[in-house]
């Protein structure tokens, strides 16, 4: 696993004492060791709590991973939704801002984004279904923008659904290679990928 990440913690204070430290400890453990390699005992040790107390919060490692990914998806959805609502303009402008918000989330929470694409395969049943539903809500933002642009003739792509899916995949994949010592700043990286997205949907000149 790639253990590089932003110093920004994914989980802030919650209503339950010790929950945030547990979730952030789990994030680091899953990022460094993978779902199968990390143990509940290790998570408890990293969080500075007992194993029995950890089980009071989360009955299994799968529940712990599912809650982490749900919270990551919630923040990504919130950032993307607010970015699109603020711009309130045509599809090209909204797509640009949605992509920038997604990329900035990945840079800010690289480890969470990486765990989200690499470890979700280990979830099953309702745990997996909850994460997929949360992820689909973010995908729907891109689907709707691209569909609107294609219907209006602003986007010339004959494959709007595939284009929207590939834009999201492109943004999430940044978590596998980004390094904060690279040549592009957070803002430059976001702008660059917004440019890629508009090219992918074949935005007509002048927009």
From TrEMBL:
One of its GO terms (molecular function) is transcription cis-regulatory region binding. Residues 16-76 form the HTH tetR-type domain. The keyword DNA repair does not apply. Gene3D superfamilies: Homeodomain-like, Tetracycline Repressor, domain 2. It comes from the Bacteria. Keywords: DNA-binding. Residues 39-58 bind DNA. This is TetR family transcriptional regulator. It comes from Allosaccharopolyspora coralli.
């Amino acid at each position: 696993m790639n253990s590089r990440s932003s110093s920004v913690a994914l989980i802030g204070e919650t209503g339950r004492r010790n929950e945030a430290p547990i979730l952030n400890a789990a994030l680091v453990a899953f990022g460094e060791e993978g779902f199968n390699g990390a143990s509940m005992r290790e998570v408890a040790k990293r969080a500075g709590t007992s194993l029995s107390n950890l089980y009071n919060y989360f009955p299994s490692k799968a529940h712990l991973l599912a809650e982490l990914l749900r919270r990551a998806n919630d923040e990504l959805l919130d950032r993307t939704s607010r970015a699109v609502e603020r711009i309130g303009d045509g599809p090209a402008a909204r797509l640009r801002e949605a992509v920038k918000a997604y990329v900035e989330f990945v840079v800010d929470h690289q480890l969470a984004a990486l765990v989200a694409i690499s470890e979700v395969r280990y979830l099953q049943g309702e745990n997996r279904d909850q994460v997929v539903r949360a992820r689909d809500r973010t995908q729907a933002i891109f689907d709707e923008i691209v569909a609107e642009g294609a219907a209006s003739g602003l986007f010339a792509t004959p494959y709007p659904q595939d284009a929207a899916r590939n834009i999201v995949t492109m943004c999430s994949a940044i978590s596998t290679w980004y390094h904060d010592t690279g040549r592009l700043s957070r803002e430059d990286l976001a702008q660059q990928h917004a440019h890629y997205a508009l090219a992918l949907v074949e935005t007509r000149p002048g927009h």
